Amino acid sequence: MSDIAEKSVIGCLLMDNKELYKVYDILKPDMFHDPVLKEIYREIIKMYDIGQPANLVTITQAVESESYTRQYIGQVLKECALLPLTSAELKSYGNSIVKDYKAETLRKILSQTQVSAAGVEYQIADLIQELESLKRSEKSKSKKLSTIVGDYEDQYFREKKEAKLYTGFSKLDDITGGLEGGDVIVIGARPGVGKSAFTSQIILEMAKAGKRIGFYNLEMSEKQVYERLLSNQSGIRLNRIRRAIQFLGDEKERFDKANRTLEEMDILVSSGTKSVSEIRNECRHQELDCIIIDYLQLVRADTRYQSRASEVGAISKAIKALAMELNVPIIALSQLNRTSEMRETKEPTMGELREAGDIEQDASIIILLWNLDNEDKTRKGLKVDKNRQGELGKIVYRFDGNEMRFQETEEVPKGNDGFKTVRQPTPFD
User: Fold this and answer.
1) Does 295 sit behind a cis peptide bond, omega within 30 degrees of 0 on the bond before it?
2) Residues 316-323, mean pLDDT to the nearest whole number
3) Which CATH number, 1.10.600.10, 3.40.250.10, 3.30.720.10, 3.40.50.300, labels domain 143-408?
4) Which of 95, 105, 281, 365 is deepest in the core (most CB within 10 A)?
5) Cβ distance 335 to 297 under 8 Å?
6) Quick check: do 2-135 and 143-408 share a fold?
7) pTM here?
8) Confidence class for position 272, pLDDT limits 50, 70, 90
9) pLDDT on residue 37
């Protein structure tokens, strides 16, 4: 049955690549028993992730190697394509492969289990862990920051949503003209500059406007995300939230008020490492208005690549494809390399995006943050270095690290330093 099921899955996908979503969240390449079918399925996933067609020609070229000749691959693909299939059967065949894989894996686990009285407690714990891993569902692991306010109210906001989303930073919104479905917005900065805090503030502003946000924080725990959002919303210093044992002054009132406000926001929070496919599976049915990924270099690839640059490039293209598929803007944070630290001026360029791959090409908007003053870390520079649909520009912010909050200023550095006022015409007008 397994052989027929595996060939049937490939045959269905050759008929229509778009049907892959039916098994994407349950069927992984390593679940295939036949080694050539495993590689064929892996390449179909790769092409699906970057929005490229998977057909007899493209698959044969991708899989051809010393192990598998072009003639052999072509013969296997023809056998799959000639099976009497309909796309309606795809999920059934996929589930069959998954069940066979789980059964075989369980047999291996049990056969390899060595029991000894001395370490029996550790052996039981290891066995339980392996079995739980095998049983674990591929369903959404996202957790809401709060419960949904109400079915009718949520429906109202989804029906009334505007074509564009805004960050809540007026000068930045004037430059970008708002964010649209299909946009990929990359925010780059060196570690410690404040890109996560800046993005958290955008999340809160969007949520206050009634938008539904999917926040994938791959670097921090749920507790750390909550503390940052709470500090920004309450105005209570982050260190006090983390360490204080009693309230001072009006802190109790501000603390309670901020928590009530956060509970009313429609934010989904997911922590821990994710692949683009896992993010896609979680977001596909959530009807989100915006997806935030912090940060891009921590996204896990679904397949292996020859170089890290190729891997990040594929991840970037997959994120762009996801933004187009779901018709939502995706904000992806990115680390910068150390190039700017070696210059007298610390102003970065988009060429400094770490492991850039195709990030520059795939992004609709690239925003860069940096410290304007080595001594005064509260002064931040922001520039829109790429804007496919609008102008470029620079803004000066004040950053309160205690409350994790950015504030726009009217400041223009001495000598103008290439900064311009937002409303000033540019060559892009």
Assistant:
1) yes
2) 86
3) 3.40.50.300
4) 365
5) yes
6) no
7) 0.60
8) confident
9) 92
- Give residue 422's pLDDT: 42
Determine what percent of the chain is predicted with pLDDT higher than 70.
Answer: 81
Q: Classify 249 in phi/psi space as left (phi over 0), alpha (psi -120 to 50) or beta.
A: left
Phi-psi group of 272: left, alpha or beta (phi > 0 → left; psi -120 to 50 → alpha; rest → beta): left
> So where are the chain's domains?
2-135, 143-408
Query: Which architecture characterizes domain 2-135 according to CATH?
Result: Orthogonal Bundle (1.10)
For strands 405-408 and 393-400, give the pairing.
antiparallel
